[in-house]
Amino acid sequence: MIKVLLVEDNIVDANLAKGMLAEAGPKEVQVTHVDRLSGALRCLAREQYDAILLNLSLLNTHGLETFTQFQAAIPRVPIVFMSRSGDPSLALTAIRHGAQDYLSKDLWTSEMLLRSIRFAIERKRGEQGLSYLAQYDQVTDLVNRALFRDRVAQALARAKRKQQGVGLMVLGLGGFSDIKESLGQEKSDAMLRAFAERIKGCLREVDTAGRLERDEFTVLLEGINDVGDATLVAQRILEAIAKPVEVEGSSAAVTASIGVTLYPLDDHPADVLLKHAAKAMHQAEDQNGNCYQFYTTDQDSPSEGHAALPSSPSPEVRT
User: Fold this and answer.
1) How many CB atoms lie within 10 A of CB 30?
2) How many domains does the chain have?
């Protein structure tokens, strides 16, 4: 059954739309009718819908600000705009405002209305699929470089408003290239997914794990209070990664090298922070891995920590 939210302030048109959809059969479409965007928001807070039929004139009645709030509440629900006007430019207006389809009430039929709803649902699924491919790593399901950078930028903006700290990590897996050569693409991808899950398991829900490329990962820590918070997470990740992974009868182990930088001690844009964390990660690699390094401006004396010393004092962070 398709659950449709009909947002229509014209009672005649609303009854006409409900009647046309009823022709599809009582088990095909279930319609909930409201006459305002505010009423639609209340419905969306209580229930989930497969599609929304929205009178285009309500945009002029309530304004774009209300409609923006409406769209924010339904990022995954397709919208079909409707209007009495036969002006072709309205279809373009509807698409620009996020609609998946547009219908002229002067021409609609029961078959056309139902088909438009179904097509809108499929278009939305396609859009979401493309969005996922553009923002997530296909092997590990972690966010990719582009989305990670965007989340770092947003986290920095929030941190500045709330006067909080942000931690950024770049993590490399030592020895993974040898595993890939010996086990092949399929098994090595399965191991990457296992390592990705271990990294996520060390984080809070508000944090973000991403994959940069090959065997390099990233971690974003929001709202941290001090160096010790980042140290604790780094130690957890080192311990989690150090455990061997078994995939289809094959077992392999790697070491992790983690570079860490902290805002506001390192007060730079997202791209620069990533470079700083990567530089600290390469320094950890120079220490034969299984350790973390905090970024400092004095690269000849980086701060260092080892998984074998979880009780050691927090490293000094200098800018």
Assistant:
1) 14
2) 2
Q: In 3D, which of 279, 205, 277 has the Cα closest to residue 234?
A: 277
Q: Provide the β-strand partners of residue 261.
A: 168
Neighbouring residues of 64: CB distance < 8 A, sequence distance ≥ 6: none
Give the position of tokens 């659950």: 3
Structure tokens at 310: 């979880």
Tell me: do 86 and 156 sit in the same domain.
no
Task: Report, as an integer, the average pLDDT of 67-96.
Answer: 70
Tokens describing residue 53: 């039929």
pLDDT digits 0-9 by tens, 194-245: 999 999 999 998 899 999 888 899 999 999 888 999 999 999 999 999 998 8
Could you tell me the pTM of the whole model?
0.58
CA distance linking residue 270 with residue 268, whole number of Å: 7
Rg (CA), the chain: 26
Q: Are residues 211 and 87 in the same domain?
A: no
Q: Residue with structure tokens 């397709």? A: 78
Q: What is the rounded distance in angstroms from the CA atom of residue 94 to the CA atom of residue 96?
A: 5
Amino acid symbol at 141? D
Q: What pLDDT is attached to residue 306?
A: 40
Q: Is there a single domain that holds both residue 90 and residue 182?
A: no
Q: How many helices (H) and strands (E) does the chain have?
A: 10, 13
Contact between residue 235 and residue 304 where contact means Cβ atoms under 8 Å apart: no
